[in-house]
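input
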Amino acid sequence: MGISQEHLAALPLWYVAFLLSLTFHEASHALVAMWGGDQTAYHSGQVTLNPLPHMRRELFGTVLVPLISFFIGGYMIGWGSAPYDPLWEQRHPRRAAVMACAGPAANFLLAFVAILAKRVFGRTGMGRSGMVALDGFAGAGSVEALFFFLNILFMLNLLLACFNLIPVAPLDGHTAIGVLLPEKLFLRWLEFARSPMLSLLGLLIAWRMVDYIYYPVLSFVTRLL
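output
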């Protein structure tokens, strides 16, 4: 399998964007849980933007899988996690639902910051205002690298937010939906949705659905901006 110089030059930018996105996502879960009365993630060191505690917790999902997916597919996928107390979730289902929303909300925020930064730098003449193709980076200069990084950050965070909001276990969406459901119905839904077989089925469903959600959202946001 041939690895081009362009591909290798993009690796650090991809990995920094991936780690930043994942860390911000998981730290947001942990912070909102702490605000809601669950100290589990706080005591495990997850309320931080330092990626190391998140990497130690999910070494496979934060190091091995992203690198493998990058060299095979040219992009990075992976996962992290923030621990929580299931008894706290049972006692405070609405708070748990808000905690679940925090991760995707953090990704939407990062996507907004990335595209805002592109607009600011573009207006100051530092670079182009249009999208830079994610497979066309040659690592030629700092301005190109910055815009390439911001593109990755924008698209990756938009993808993470859309994917995680799909309401199937084990994604955030299956808990986040609790902000819309009556508490008793929500608790029944959690009990039903979290069986191992349904979680596996949920991932397969989400994997097939994400293109039908992400690309229309990306198109809409791009036209809007």
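quick obs: Residues 128-133 have pLDDT under 50 and may be disordered.
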